[in-house]
Write a structure and sequence with these properties.
This protein is mainly α. It contains three helices and no strands.
Length: 69
């Protein structure tokens, strides 16, 4: 009776150990986390620089519209 209950537990432990030792998806996960942090940093930078960027684009648009020709 204990053999019937013990086999699935041992298989589960072996599968968990094999998953922990695999290194296939680690680099993909690390790149995804890095990309996420980079996206958050860009969004935060754009949020704090929004007034400067708005003025920069406004100046560029006015200089294009006032161009001779």
């Amino acid at each position: 009776m204990t053999d019937i209950l013990l086999r699935p537990l041992v298989r589960l432990q072996i599968a968990a150990t094999e998953l922990r030792e695999r290194e296939d998806g680690q680099t993909t996960t690390e790149y995804a986390i890095l990309l996420g942090f980079l996206a958050i940093a860009i969004i935060v930078a754009l949020y704090f620089l929004r007034d400067v960027l708005r003025q920069l684009f406004s100046d560029a648009a006015s200089s294009v519209s006032n161009a001779p020709g």
